[in-house]
Amino acid sequence: MDVVAVAERLLGTTPVGVRPTGSDGVYLLDMGTRTVVLKLSTHGHSVLAEARAYQAAAAHDVRVPRVLATGTDPEAMALEFLDGVSLWSEERRDKDNSFAWRRAGEDLRTLHEIRLPGFGPIVPDGRGIAGHADSWCPFVRSAREDGIRTLVDAGVLDSRVGRRLEARYDEAAADLHSWSDGRLLHGDLEGGHILVSGDEYLGLIDFDQAQVGDPRWDLARVPLWDGVAALDALLDGYGRDTLGPGDRELLLPLYLLAFVIHHAVRFADEGDVEKARGHLAQTQYERLV
Predict the structure, then answer these.
(1) Where do the structural domains in the chain lie, given as residue ranges?
(2) Boundaries of each Aminoglycoside phosphotransferase domain copy (predicted)?
(3) Considering the domain 3-80, what is its CATH architecture?
């Protein structure tokens, strides 16, 4: 694909330079007086839906990059470049990032106040966005009905463990499947998607896995890569009233496991049983057994 031509159509001018970022379909454009992020649709992901998620968030004063332009042939989006580093950068790795997690918590709470139709991953819907499924939660349903059994059959999980995990999903089924108030979710909340400049919080990025559903789905993701302390700092800004009694012991771990099962099944289908096991181990699912 001619990235320069796409940039010209979106922005009306030719970039001075184009630099890949290392992320598939994402480029940094040197426009002479500013840097712009160019993102193209890849792997079935709709950049147009992501752009509308950014716009919905910005309209509610959530700190996110500004959408500069979108195009449909091919689907592409030009975004404001936030000149900072993520919490996963070398610069921030050994520093106290609790301030950024608190601010991210405040933004996340505001994001979760946005109500949308449907459930699950977002898709374009008229001039807006909606979840592509009719009920919550597609990932949980897939994990319980197919994912666990697939991983047992592939030798990733012991059959006894599989049955116990299925029982835990059944135990929480009323709460897991009864959510009927769809909210806009980031869908991939992690330190790598929180930007700062020094001790200044810049905002949230990468909405390509945005969903409509239960806000606790976003909270459940945080401990996977960033640990329990990051979740505690996030909740300092977000507030703890969203979590009910026992949510941190059962519902959040089940949400996290459902997300990881989705990826572990793919690894197992590719024949990489050890990678699937390693991915699952990061959820500490044994605590549910």
Answers:
(1) 3-80, 85-288
(2) 26-241
(3) 2-Layer Sandwich (3.30)
Beta bridge partners of 121: 211
pLDDT band at 43 (very low <50, low <70, confident <90, very high): confident
Whether residue 202 contacts residue 196, with contact meaning beta carbons closer than 8 Å, is answered with yes
CATH topology (fold) of 85-288: Aminoglycoside 3'-phosphotransferase; Chain: A, domain 2 (3.90.1200)
Residue 204 to residue 192: CA distance in whole angstroms? 9
Model confidence at 45, in pLDDT bands (50, 70, 90)? confident
Residues 6+ apart with CB under 8 A from 133: 118, 119, 120
Q: What is the pLDDT of residue 42?
A: 84
What are the structure tokens assigned to 64, written together? 């996110």
| Structural tokens at position 288 | 């549910």
Average pLDDT for 45-51 = 93
